[in-house]
Amino acid sequence: MRRLRLGRAFTLIEPGPVVLVTTHDGRKDNIMTISWTMVLDFTPVFAITTGEWNHSYAALRKSRECVVAIPTVDLLDKVVGIGTCSGKDTDKFARFGLTPVRGKFVRAPLIKECLANLECKVVDIVKRHDIVVLEAVAAYLDTGRKEKRTVHAVGDGTFIVDGRRIDRRKMMASKIPFGV
Amino acid sequence: MRRLRLGRAFTLIEPGPVVLVTTHDGRKDNIMTISWTMVLDFTPVFAITTGEWNHSYAALRKSRECVVAIPTVDLLDKVVGIGTCSGKDTDKFARFGLTPVRGKFVRAPLIKECLANLECKVVDIVKRHDIVVLEAVAAYLDTGRKEKRTVHAVGDGTFIVDGRRIDRRKMMASKIPFGV
Predict the structure, then answer these.
(1) ipTM of the predicted assembly exceeds 0.85
(2) Which of A6, A8, A44, B67 could form a disulfide with B22 if both were Cys (CB 3.0 to 4.6 A apart)?
(3) Taking the model in full, what pTM does it have?
(4) Does the CB of A15 have a partner CB in chain B at under 8 Å?
């Protein structure tokens, strides 16, 4: 995994892929599947929706750290499996054959098998809406990976895979932040 | 456009498509392009990130209403065009050949050419993060439309079109809200 410029990291979240969020509670690593995410700023700051209903939430709130990993379509059954069992009674890294990799800034692990990983600090929690605001402090991209298509949860048990990419960089020039 | 059950409306936002948000300021309609959205609850409540930098924000804040419309890939150049000019000096419905349709609950217009439209009330504004929290009060789907593929902004001037859909409804059964 190569370091990716932080100025580009929001482009991993903006298209709206399902993500995996890892935490470390002082004893154990855990992973949750999150589909509810939103960019808040290019710096990059972004939000995820989570709360007490997710076992990982306690570790996220206490440690104020996590890693947001971007899986691709070949990992879909792991992503769904992770989202439908609990870290309360399951070691998800072992069960789903994923490899935790230590990052530089947070204790939560990167996921080696993912396309990209963002080491994140919790900068705020908006309790009344269960919004956790994250700032990425380091970003990594697996540039050698062939499968780069992410998946978008519809919410009804189906998932849309990335199709073709359309280039509108010329039309968008006035809106693209410096450095992208 | 047919009414869509509100219990299904979050499935329009969850995959993360670029959306168009219309407002009415008491005199004029306007449209903005928004890529930063997130579901907050199935009811459906969801968030968009916007603020003073968008001309529509004043109308959104004052009227506490909007329509969120879901465009498809055939509308991409209009979506990009809407996102790169301002309602301050442009009648965007006229300029981009879009048809405003009156809804039932809000003064902001639906967009006839879009795949889906959500009439929304502003339920909260989280000023410190420029998050506007919306609740949809009515949803509409153009069921006769052939082109159903939405587009996902990457943020660098490129857009990913929806590809194929994968069904994991069986694996997801425990997580799918009632009514979807």
Answers:
(1) yes
(2) B67
(3) 0.97
(4) yes
